[in-house]
Specification:
19% of the residues lie in helices and 49% in strands.
Amino acid sequence: MPVRIESMLARVCQLAVTVALLVGTGRPVHGAPRDTILGRWGGESICVKAPWNSACNDEQIVYQFEPSPTRKGGVIQHAFKLIGGVPQLMGDLEFRFDSAGKEWVGDFANSRTRVRWFYKVSGENLTGRVVVLNSGKVGRRVRAHRVVDRK
């Protein structure tokens, strides 16, 4: 019996150390998706090169994700492109987490197009794509990394 108790205590201690390390890194312990995307990201948004996508321009981007004030668990993306190193607001878009695809999804529509943005977070990296809804074609790919403000 004492060996069994020692084994259980060892496992409890291992779990406690693991939880302490996760909490110490600022990472969500339970993998709450929203916490993983919040903050500032910088990188590039590159067009798929194809005749049907010739109006598309590659961009250096900065994205700021904040909690959505209207959708529980959702986020708002403030998207900027850098022109001469100066951020220019492109717009805001609301995203929801798709637990089946394990990715963030946001729809955009105007008089010319309807697209769906998809983002996945892996540690300090954000990858994404833009899909044209009427054709299913991928028009853009995004690669970004978390930006840490140094004070």
